[in-house]
Amino acid sequence: MPKYSFKGIGVILLHSKTLLIIKQRTSYLLEKYLSGKSIHYQQVLALALPIFLEQAFILGINFFNTALISTAGVAAISAVNMVDSLNLLMTTILVAVATGGTVVVAQYQGSRNQEMVSRSTEQTVAAVPLLALGLGLVLILFRDPILWLLFGSADADVFSNSRLYLLGSVLSYPAFGLYQGCVCCLRGVGRTRPALALTLITNVSYVLLNLLFISVFHWGVVGMAVAVNIARGLGAACSLLFLTRLDDTLHFEYRGALRLNKDILRRIMYIGLPFAAEQVFFNGGKLLTQTYIVALGTLAITANAIVWSIIMVLQIPSNTISQVAVTIIGQCMGRRQVDDSRKFIRTFVILSSICYLIMLLVVQPLLPGLIGVFNPPEQIIPEIRRIVIVTAIAMPFVWSLSFIIPASIRAAGDAKFSSVVSLCCMWTLRVAGGWLLAIPFGLGLIGIYVAMILEWTVRSGIFLFRVKGNKWYAHHLID
Prior knowledge:
The protein has about 475 residues and is mainly α. The chain has helices at about 5-35, 40-70, 75-110, 115-140, 145-150, 155-170, 175-190, 190-215, 220-245, 255-260, 260-295, 300-315, 315-335, 340-365, 365-370, 380-410, 415-440, 445-470.
């Protein structure tokens, strides 16, 4: 046998021993920080992985679509960005009410009340599309006054594109509401894989249709509007098909959905309405901030769209953790396991901050290429880079505390406090502060982002103080 063979065997054994030690150490850390009395870390990871893939896919598609519509010109990307700020306001209201369903379903799942899990699912799936229909009708009836009020100072071609895109977007709201209600209930019982599958069906079809209508047919914003309607309609149809034919957990029945149950709806709305009100004022504030950006000019609108697309990429892991927290904390509180809830909140906040640091290190060297995907005018590239770097540096230190904690205590039933704090900080710091820094102080677009970071910082302190007390878990959402 050659002399070096013994050395080679020794190296292999050493590597095997090292890998075993790493595996044991990793298992120990996961057991210590991501396991509770009734939830094992493998369950948490099984819940988190599909949500992470879903978030990565959704945000990747948003990034891709923004880049795709940018090929139709500055007016097109500006119009889509303006209207999407209004769309975001409406869709987050629907997501907020659906999240109320997630919390109620999760708590009943935690208390092992299968009958109420089913009834809560039926009411959520019925209520969210009805709300979407109402919101859509209001926007269709008052489309022009709303657009003139918010974006009247925009260039004529930008405004014309925004009218078309808003109408097309609004028509898709009921289908979005139905799909979102189904997906949120699936998350409530920890069934994130079918939720991921439904998300993939909706969003893959959206990308393919956008490629067809924008790149091949050259329909611009009209193509994007047609694509979102077809994709969301397909997602809604597949969601209903899954609930009625394939699901063996939620036991959804049409008869139950057609009869509104006031008691269950009250529980859902107890969480959903404060969160929805928060989203109205929160995204309403962002919408008002958008009017400052419109006043700064079309190039500022374009720069903001690109900056936000890149920031959303940085947020993929932390947004995943925020959604996982709602299900895990909801199930813990359904079993009244307060100690486990505290442990998971602390772990999720730290893990989110670590993820931000990793994403910052990954994205930083790729930043020039990411910006280049959007083909921006040369004169706004330095500002885009500066804003992204400033915001990204702040995120690991303040975003996690200001968003993971409120998501967690909301799952425990502490929705009112979370909403009031979020709204007060939003309007006093981001809206008023953003206007002061951007317009009178002349900082422009970066002033709005500095105000946003200040808002996150103040929120962090307030929510950290709240979660250290005992009022956040004193609510009894279910019997």
